[in-house]
Write a structure and sequence with these properties.
globular, Jelly Rolls
Length: about 260
């Protein structure tokens, strides 16, 4: 997965969001499912970096399958080289994949990941990607059985206008203090959902399934966690979410400026 640049055309940005070739920035953390280390799946301790800066190795609760998201209910929209990370749970405890980077990222840092829903038959589930501060939940983009739309869970929960059957590119932008902005870009195209000036989760507000924890400052954010949680736990009703193209860009050049869209 290559880089976003604020000066690129809309067409070029769409190509990048779909994992096609683009110029490379000098200062960022990048990884995607097409890297050779994931040939046998995403395992605990796996580490691939295609940017100049290096993530810490994955902390994974299981071996997660690496395949096209078209294989299990998706459309393959977020694939890079025909592959995405598949996070799936059929147990009554969360299965997590966590990727760490240095804390103290500057205001304006953009953190981004592509998400696509897989087949989920559980009647009680939560799948999310979220920002964390040393394992403490802060800001999640989530899907669960209570809504057919992507949701934002932090100190003030929000249901977006984007169906969770639509693949998305999530872009968090770190702001001063305990605030951040978030943008959900439908893929391959569509009207983004943007919310600015949001506050990280306050202590004790959220359940385990929704990330838990807080409070957090932008300067303390140092992890992205992807969680799949089938709270039915029957073993035959899995919860599935695909993810790909994880980027942390301290330069803030990813992607188009937020103010080019209407704020929800």
């Amino acid at each position: 997965m290559a880089r976003y640049h604020s000066l690129l055309s809309t067409t070029a940005l769409s190509m990048i969001a779909l994992g096609l070739a683009a110029p490379v920035d000098a200062y960022d953390y990048e990884d995607d499912a097409s890297q050779a280390v994931y040939a046998d799946g995403l395992d605990n301790g796996d580490n691939a970096n295609t940017g100049t800066l290096s993530f810490s190795p994955w902390i994974a609760d299981a071996t997660f399958v690496v395949e096209s998201s078209a294989n299990d209910g998706g459309a393959g929209v977020i694939d890079v080289g025909g592959l995405s990370w598949r996070f799936q749970s059929d147990a009554s405890s969360p299965f997590d994949g966590t990727r760490a980077f240095s804390d103290g990222q500057p205001v304006g840092t953009k953190i981004s990941v592509s998400l696509e829903a897989g087949t989920t038959t559980s009647t009680s589930f939560t799948n999310f990607a979220g920002l964390q501060a040393s394992g403490v939940g802060a800001a999640n983009v989530s899907m669960d059985e209570t809504s057919s739309f992507w949701q934002i869970f932090d100190d003030a929960d929000t249901t977006t206008t984007i169906s969770y059957s639509t693949p998305i590119r999530v872009i968090w932008t770190l702001q001063a203090g305990s605030t951040y902005d978030v943008e959900l870009q439908p893929l391959p195209s569509g009207t983004p959902y943007v919310s600015t000036g949001r506050t990280y989760t306050a202590s004790g507000v959220k359940s385990l399934a929704k990330g838990g924890g807080g409070p957090a400052l932008s300067s303390a954010i140092n992890q992205v966690k992807i969680r799949t949680y089938d709270s039915d736990g029957t073993g035959s009703t899995p919860a599935t979410i695909y993810a790909n193209s994880l980027i942390v860009d301290p330069s803030g050049s990813l992607p188009v400026e937020l103010d080019s869209y209407s704020v929800e």
